[in-house]
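Pipeline run #58 for the internal structure catalog. This entry was flagged by the ingest filter as a single-chain record with no existing model, so it goes straight to prediction. Upstream metadata was stripped on purpose; only the residue string is passed forward. Reviewer on rotation: M.T. Logging verbosity set to normal.
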Amino acid sequence: MNAPASQLSARVRLADLSDPGECARIVSFVRATDGATPFHLPQWITAMETGCGQTAHMLVAERGNAIVGVLPANVVHSPLVGRALVSSGFAVGGGILADDPAVISDLANNSWALAERLSCPEVELRGGPVPEGWDARSGLYANFSRELAEDAEADLLSVNRKHRAEIRKSFKNDLSYSVGNGRAERDQHYAIYATSVRNLGTPVFPRSMFDAVLDNFGDDADIMVVHHDGQPISAVLTLYFEGRAMVYWGGGTMQARALRANDFLYITMMNHARERGCTVFDFGRSKRNTGPYKWKKNWGFEPEPMVYASRLVDGMAPREMNPNSPKYRLQVALWKKLPLPIANRVGPWIAKGLG
């Protein structure tokens, strides 16, 4: 008697990401699997390879001709923080996508073997199941998402009353918006985002990374830009995945704060997402008890603790990636003072290894 398919051992191999047919099979599996994110797609990890030079790998578990699990990853390397195999690079999610404990274990073991071959002393899984024997880390980040209300007014009513008043004030500030993923929107978004992160004291990612994401995702990504007197002052790049709108890279100028442009941006984005047929709005992750964390709670979103898993070479400490760490306090303070042209020239060289 033949054993049931669920009892057969899975075969784990590296996918050929240059093969459109292979990638299409992976995309079909990801879109049909609970717990999937856009960061599990080949489009994401190959965009990180194109945009930042961080090599993409996709481990695929198969039983017969059926895919039963995947693990996307980028080899992220930086002279500042070291080298790691990360699922997924520059993402807030990823990790093993499978529901069979045996497949989860196989993918985890194969990721560690791949890391050893690639001279990576650490594997980091951003979400998904925690493999047995791996270290789990939680408490630093929380994600914020909820179902969209039936209309814009209902979304407003879900916001903290005091913050709702601030949003309504933004409607009186002569703000307008545009949406697209063409050259104009890309130029405006990058200029705003680069200014915003410099003001926060962190280096900006390469422009090529944003372009690669927009190119790879096509109609499943766009940019909303808020204007005042014809000038772009606030913008966000959003991913769309299986009915979920995920606002991802956003920022605003100093003028945007005074005009409450970010409030206008995100309430308008909710309506735009609903018009696209989305049912869930994902505000993304924030570090616990920071300003953005509290700001998102005021919008009526509840924090969902995020759990990351890692395995390291014995005796090695995990990479320190938190810019709020005392280790980076001086660097952050100095970066805030850099002239923007210098920050934009040097920043991408640094940031492309901070995935």
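catalog note: The chain is about 35% helix and 25% strand.
catalog note: The two ends are 49 Å apart (CA to CA).
status: ready for reviewer M.T.
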